[in-house]
Amino acid sequence: MPGRKLTKDDRSHFLELPVSRLPLTAPLCLMAALALSACEPDHTAAHTQTIRTETGILPAAQGVWRNADYGWILEINETGITRWQDTPAGCYRTAQDGPTLMSQVEYRFFTPTGPDRAQFEYLPSDGHTIFRQLDSLPAECGATDLTDRAGTLDVFASVFAQHYAFFERRGVDWNAQVERARAELAAVETDADFFALLAAMIEPLGDSHTKLIAEIGGERHRAQYGLGETLASVHDGMGEMTWLVGIIDGLMNEVLDPGARHILNDRVITGTIDGRIGYIQIFTMGGFDHALEPGTPEWAAGELAALHAMLDEALTEFADLDGVILDLSNNRGGYDAVTRAIASHFTDEAFDGYSVRTDWSADPDITYRIEPADGVRYTGPVTVLTSDVTVSAGEITTLMLRQLPNVTQAGQTTRGAFSTPLAKPLPNGWYVELANEIFADADGTVHEGEGLAPDWPVTVFDPADPVASHGAAVREVAARMMGN
């Protein structure tokens, strides 16, 4: 509806946006299935079976399964699935009484991929991590009580040493951080002090995909850094709610032509500028339809169907215009399947979008090939607008699109946090996420920690007025695309 203002209820749910490819709100945990659906595994749905059947646990899935790259062990018997965290400091059972997060969501599907190899997935074809079957649970699992502070610190330190991929890129000597923390541990008297000790270890990374979460005295504590200058400035100033509502109201009432729409669960704005430039702003890569139960195959299909329908309609309207602005300047991330679906609407030829690996010296675990969408495609001039708020799946979308000859990136450099966070519950019931995946563009260039610099620099969010500057940036880009 043109010029529609957000109601109080609208605004509260609008702020529940994912800032990475793992949602922040517990009811949406299963939405990470779309994040994982990036792969194109070498199997068909006919080989994929439901782990929990009407008669119990699928016999073929029972046993002990290990994925060393991510430090996960699954112990499956006729009663269910037990998760173990396999770390250099010890192997321990995943706590079930801490924060309800992605690490606790149970796998639903099982796909054999070879002798003693299988994929365990939340939805069919939603992952590319392979588990290998072991003869039995390793003897070290459960052998040591790691729940005290010394044990938790050892696990915390070893998990980062084993899995974090960007110490060198972010200029952090992890061994020095660990030595300092161990020297200070004796002076720690409270859980709050211990939380501060661990938080100080990750602060120098400045990585917004790395975080520590704990419940202390019934209160949630969170340590997360590297969120960029814009969000910090907004939080210290007018506040994020006022900022977001101001941006939306400015677009609907001052920038876009009459008839602009705020749609898909308030995650998308579409419209035109001066009848010559199409405009699409996407705030999150997912969360488009709240009517379906999250985590079901129907939900996953519904999310993508809603996106494709929106793009088909908008790009049909934009077909004869001078160009299209895809505004990702306030995109907080979301689900990788959505990023590839977006890219598929802006090309007539298949292309390599990006690759992922967990070892700098190894070949990619997978390269994602983007095929042209079956629906409406737009191959005229496209400008992708970005800022330091653009992160994660928003950056992946930008990474793919800027490789196309018809696409220009404008705005400010993106956040530089691409990796899907690796979730690790700690033995004391706390929870950590870290960046372990190395994303690269088709040329093999890795932009983690640096972000994607625009071809055409434009100030999108000026600290002096982060609302008005966004509208001014959109108008500036549109004018240039119209040749004004």
Task: Describe this entry's structure for a reader.
There is one protein chain. The protein is α+β, with helices and mostly antiparallel strands. The chain folds into 3 domains: 24-134, no CATH class; 149-224, no CATH class; 229-424 and 439-481, 2-enoyl-CoA Hydratase, Chain A, domain 1 (Alpha-Beta Complex), CATH 3.90.226.10. Helix content is 26%, strand content 23%. The protein is built from 11 helices and 24 strands. It has helices at 8-14, 32-36, 149-163, 174-185, 191-202, 229-236, 240-255, 297-318, 336-343, 393-401, 468-481; strands spanning 49-50, 52-53, 56-57, 63-67, 72-77, 80-87, 90-93, 109-114, 117-121, 131-134, 211-216, 219-224, 261-263, 268-273, 277-282, 323-327, 351-357, 366-370, 382-386, 407-411, 421-425, 431-435, 438-440, 456-457. The strands form 5 sheets. An 8-stranded antiparallel β-sheet has the order 1-8-9-10-4-5-6-7. Strands 13-14-15-16-19-20-24 form a 7-stranded mixed β-sheet, sandwiched between helices. A 4-stranded antiparallel β-sheet has the order 12-11-22-21, covered by helices on one side. A hairpin with a 4-residue loop joins strand 13 (261-263) and strand 14 (268-273). Helix 8 (297-318) packs parallel to helix 9 (336-343). It is globular and about 70 Å long. Mean pLDDT is 88; it is low at 1-46 and 98-103.
